[in-house]
Structures are given as C-alpha cells and as structure tokens.
Design goal:
The protein is an alpha/beta fold. The chain has 13 helices and 12 strands. The strands form 3 sheets. It has a 7-stranded mixed sheet, sandwiched between helices. Helix 3 runs parallel beside helix 4. It binds pyridoxal-5'-phosphate.
C-alpha cells in the first residue's frame, strides 16, 4: 500500500514506539506521587517539556501538554477571549479556511457576543499580512491564523502576521498542527504568542499534543480537577504519550532538511503529472506549500468514488480533510479559495510521507489518470460538458 494520507495521521516512528512501550512497561508511576517511582515519571515528563520547548524556541514553562491539536486550539482561543473580554475587547480575527477546532470554537464565542472577522484566503490560499493589519480594531483581542492548511497545504507568512499583531498589541495564535515537525518554527522570532501542535501529525502517538503559551499569558482551564500542568489542565498526565511525542518531534525536527529535499521534488513530480489531466487544477499556491501536500480538483467526478477506486489500487488518499470526509458537504477550504460546489466535490488530497519513492509517485500519477478517465466515462455531468451543454470551469 502507498500511504498518502499523512495529513490525516502518520505512522508512529520506531523511536516513539520504543519510548512509549518502555515507559508503559517500566515507568508507570504517577508524576504527582512523592515517592521516587512517581518522581521518575515526573522527570520523564519534564524532560519531554524541555525537548518540545527547545524545538520551537520556547521555554519549558511555556509548554502545556494537551490531548491533541483540538484541545490546544480550544484552550488558546478561549483563553485569549477571556483575557480580552476583561477589558471589553470582544473582536477576533481569523480566516475562512481554519480547521473546525478553531472555527467551531469561534462560533461558540460568537454566540456569547464576540464578533468574528474571517479573512479572505484568496485563490492561492494565502492570507495577506496587510489585510490582517487592516482588520484589527481597537477592540480586537486575538488574531488566530493557521500556520499551514491541512487540506491544501498552503503555508502562511506567520512571521509577518506575528509582526503585525505585535505592533498592534494583539495576541496571536497559530494552529501549527500541520507544520510542527515539518517546518522550522521559532515562536520568538515569529512573534507567536500561542501555538497548537499534535503528536500524531509528526509520527508521534494519537491523543497527545501541546499548547505553547508565551509566559505571562493567563490560560483558562478547559478541564477542572487536580493541579497538573500548573493547574491549567487537570488530569493525570499521559507520560508515555508525551515522552513518545517528544521523541518523535526531536527526530522529525532533526530530519526536516533531509525530508524536505526528498519530498519537494517528488511532490512537484506528482503535481506536474496530475496537471496533464484535462480540466484539472491544483488547489493552493504551488510554491508556498507543505513539502508533502498535493491537492487537485478534477472536473466532472466525485472525490469519494476516486478515493474508493484508488484504494482498490492500493493508494490511501483523501478528499477534503479526514475530519470532514464523513460529511457530504464540499470542503469549506476549497469553497474558501473560490472553487464552486461541483468542482470542490471532485477533489483529491495526497499527503505523501518520507518513505515515498519516485516509483510510487509514478504509480500514483498513472493510477489517478486512469481512475479519473474511467469515472468521467460514465459521469452524466462530464458527458454534458463534453457535449457542449454547459461550460467547463477548469
Ligand atoms: C490544522 C489542524 N488543526 C487541528 C487538528 C486537530 O488535531 P487533533 O486531531 O490532534 O485534535 C488537525 C487534525 O486534523 C489539523 O489538521
């Protein structure tokens, strides 16, 4: 099988698996226990905090472990909102193609009376820092813009957006779930106040992640209970998961240059190959995109059928994000970059991993070409388009 759905989740690395199994077996003490067996687990936890902090240029005390990216997004946004409302600031700036962990949290705040501005992401899937600047008002308490998009892979100019927020005195959160472990990030250099990450996107385990919160930012608890994580996130810590995340992240970070040099030419080979399919279009900017992301729309077909037939050929891919693929609505990300409903339905996301080869890439290209042609062969929409009833969009 060619696994080309790494944006949905990744395989755990050997380093993460062995760290996790070793700790599950041998270091099962509770980090809050005072005896040395518990304190051993506490040491593991604090070492993981140091390791994670070092990768993104943060201080260990600025890292809070969570159950993943969704929790980190929720906590970052809710915290900034609670800080803002204390001084009457109830306006938040975000973008139309954020992950639902961000958009649904913003919807919840809108019901409480917060005003939300969702910035245009343009046809290329890139937010303009000057438009962020223009959207900030005297009552803005937060700007939340994702680092890299989970569907179309476009990477934002986070440093420029961070500089705008800093100059305007507004907190800046970035959902970096798709970027951490794949791109080099320095939270201080990029003026990031809050950042969310998730281990299972960089070969760590599922159900664990972290929130970076610049020191001095008062976090609001989402989970009440014990005094873990300085009282900001109750619940006995997932020590094996957290340590495995740190092991995976250190390894991923050390390999970023090598992985990028391997992935980018293969990504671009697939982009060029699929571009030969008539009436197709790449979604998102070609250059400013994650090294492993390819996202195309093919006119006249349904993405779901394409996925099933690719599955038969041993290729695991996705149409839209994993989180929304259970629904029949077209992807909000593709709609945000201006794709019309019919075209958005015919989308394919391939998120390739480091183990991909050129032969795999060529097999993907020939398989997608074959399947698209086959599906168009009995698509009434395609037949009408070819017969001149209606006009092609792509
Ligand atoms: C951009 C982005 N944000 C947040 C999440 C949610 O992360 P998690 O699955 O760890 O809750 C995802 C997962 O798909 C994502 O891609």
């Amino acid at each position: 099988m060619i696994y080309a759905d790494n944006a949905a989740t990744t395989a755990m690395s050997e380093a993460a698996i062995s760290r996790m199994t070793e700790l599950i077996r041998d270091t099962y003490g509770n980090p809050s226990s005072l005896y040395s067996f518990g304190q051993k687990a506490k040491e593991v936890l604090e070492q993981a905090r140091e390791d994670v902090a070092a990768v993104i240029g943060a201080e260990p005390r600025e890292i809070l472990f969570t159950s993943g990216g969704s929790e980190a997004d929720n906590q970052a946004i809710i915290s900034a909102a609670r800080i803002g409302e204390k001084s009457g600031k109830k306006h938040i700036v975000s973008s139309a193609f954020e992950h639902h962990a961000v958009l649904h949290t913003l919807n919840k705040l809108a019901k409480e009376g917060f005003e939300i501005t969702l910035l245009d992401v343009h046809e290329d899937g890139i937010i303009r820092p000057e438009e962020v600047d223009k959207s900030i008002r005297n009552d803005t308490c937060l700007v939340t813009i994702m680092y890299a998009n989970n569907e179309i892979g476009t990477i934002q100019d986070i440093k420029a957006i961070g500089a705008v927020c800093k100059a305007r005195g507004v907190l800046f959160h970035t959902d970096a779930v798709q970027a951490v472990g794949h791109l080099k990030i320095d939270v201080k250099e990029e003026n990031i106040d809050l950042l969310s990450a998730s281990a299972h996107k960089f070969h760590g385990p599922k159900g664990v992640g972290f929130l970076y919160a610049r020191k001095g930012i008062r976090l609001t608890n989402l989970i009440e209970g014990g005094a873990q994580e300085k009282g900001k996130r109750a619940g006995t810590e997932n020590v094996p998961g957290i340590a495995a995340m740190a092991a995976a992240l250190k390894e991923a970070y050390a390999a970023i240059d090598v992985n990028t040099a391997h992935l980018v030419p293969i990504r671009d080979r697939i982009i060029a190959g699929l571009g030969e399919i008539p009436h197709s279009a790449l979604n998102g900017d070609a250059a400013s995109r994650l090294p492993g992301n390819i996202n195309y729309c093919f006119e006249g077909i349904e993405g779901e059928s394409l996925l099933l037939l690719l599955d038969d050929k041993g290729i695991a891919a996705s149409s839209g994000s994993a989180c929304t693929s259970g629904s029949l609505d077209p992807s909000h990300v593709l709609l945000a970059i201006g794709r019309v409903h019919d075209v958005a339905h015919g989308s394919l996301r391939l998120s390739i991993g480091e183990d991909i080869t050129e032969e795999d890439a060529d097999y993907i290209i020939s398989s997608v070409k074959e399947v698209v042609e086959y599906l168009r062969g009995f698509s009434p929409v395609w037949r009408d388009l070819v017969a001149g009833k209606g006009s092609f969009i792509l």
